[in-house]
Amino acid sequence: MNFNLLKLLQISSIVLIILVLCNINMDAQCAMCKAAVETGGEGDGLNKGILFLLTMPYLIAMGLGFVWWKNKKRMEEEIQSTQLKELLNDID
Q1: Domain that holds residue 60
Q2: Is residue 59 part of a domain?
Q3: pLDDT band at 1 (very low <50, low <70, confident <90, very high)
Q4: pLDDT number for residue 13
Q5: How many whole angstroms separate alpha carbon 89 and alpha carbon 80?
Q6: Is residue 28 a part of any domain in this protein?
Q7: Tens of pLDDT along 25-76?
Q8: Which stretches does DSSP call E strand in the chain?
Q9: Among 4, 18, 26, 51, which residue has the fewest nearby CB atoms (within 10 Å)?
Q10: Which letter does DSSP use for residue 92 in this model?
Q11: What values do phi and psi take at 29, rounded to 5?
């Protein structure tokens, strides 16, 4: 295994162990969001907003991956066609 990869794996493991062992209670919401949810009625809209924010990065990544895949496929087809043309020209 590469030395740099091994060193990175060791450092990542140490950081992960420290994060798991340091259990700190945190409030994940701002005061206004927390108050809105506790008073009731607004929780459904807040949950939909959270789901929207959760899905957007995945949709963007999937879109970029699809564009990359299509371009890669098109480039491979162009390379194959040029190689075929070169072979046909060599035969003649």
Answers
A1: 49-92
A2: yes
A3: low
A4: 92
A5: 14
A6: no
A7: 666 667 777 777 777 766 667 778 888 888 999 999 999 999 999 999 999 9
A8: none
A9: 26
A10: -
A11: -120, 155
